[in-house]
Specification:
With about 260 residues, this protein is an alpha/beta fold. The protein is built from ten helices and ten strands. Helix 6 runs parallel beside helix 7 and helix 6 packs across helix 10.
Length: about 260
């Protein structure tokens, strides 16, 4: 990995809401095929950072390079075109409640390609099968469990075969067993498609399962970046506080159970 060029490079990023600086001098890079976790508590700036990474906000200064191109300097039209390389999994799944699960997954293909409807139908079914949701194509999102809606969101994010996928708090609001299954799915997607994944979370149990490297944010600045082992040995008091939180027995059991599943529940 060290010999490869980064997929994402963030340089001296400063973001503000009015006069309030929310991110102050953020620097990091994301390497091809890794799961890069952005970790932080409430108010740390991690959601604002994600919004900048996907082009929903513009920074006050600094830049974001994706595949060597200055994403922050692109026009709105250029960013829209460039986003076809990206998939986004929203915290609340963001499925449209008035259409079926299959139509939700097919939506990017209908909006951004000229594929025949029969091809779109096949691709949609493949993506749903990948996330363990075969047979729910005609269901409405309201008829699915919370975990199933999250997985349907992953299927939609994968619809355009992205090279980078962003996850916003993927396990938030899920019980430990379902959350552990979703963590396994994130790992499976990475291994199967060599995806570069950026995951925003505050869930330490998930971090320990999925992360290749972690960027810890604290009060709008990077407190540390490294592997789990490196951060567990950090002398930064905020990082120590986060990594001192061990998974409880229930979460550990859930992770073991999820690992034993052939499908993700």
């Amino acid at each position: 990995m060290a010999s490869e060029e980064p997929v994402i490079v963030v340089e001296d990023l400063v973001v503000s809401y009015g006069d309030k600086v929310v991110l102050d001098g953020i620097n990091f890079s994301v390497m091809p095929g890794e799961i890069f976790v952005i970790l932080g508590g409430s108010g740390s700036g991690k959601t604002t950072l994600l919004r900048n990474l996907v082009g929903l906000m513009q920074p006050r200064s600094g830049k974001i390079l994706i595949y060597g191109e200055n994403f922050t300097a692109m026009s709105s039209q250029e960013r829209t075109q460039f986003r076809r390389k990206m998939g986004m999994c929203f915290q609340g799944s963001a499925l449209l409640g008035s259409i079926s699960v299959a139509d939700n997954v097919a939506l990017p293909l209908r909006e951004h390609t000229k594929l025949e409807e029969s091809t779109i139908d096949i691709m949609t079914r493949i993506k749903l099968e990948l996330v363990g949701l075969s047979g729910v194509e005609d269901y409405l999102p309201s008829e699915l469990s919370g975990g199933m809606r999250k997985r349907a969101g992953v299927a939609r994010a994968m619809a355009m075969d992205p090279e980078i996928i962003f996850y916003d708090e993927p396990s938030a609001g899920l019980d430990p067993i379902v959350a552990a299954g979703l963590d396994k799915l994130i790992r499976t997607m990475q291994a199967t498609f060599n995806l570069t994944s950026v995951v925003v979370t505050h869930e330490m149990e998930s971090v320990r399962i999925i992360a290749d490297r972690v960027c810890v944010l604290h009060q709008g600045r990077v407190a540390g970046i490294g592997t789990l082992e490196e951060l567990e040995n950090s002398d930064h008091p905020y990082i120590q506080q986060f990594f001192a939180r061990r998974p409880d027995d229930q979460s550990t059991a859930a992770a073991a159970y999820a690992e034993s599943l052939t499908g993700i529940d």
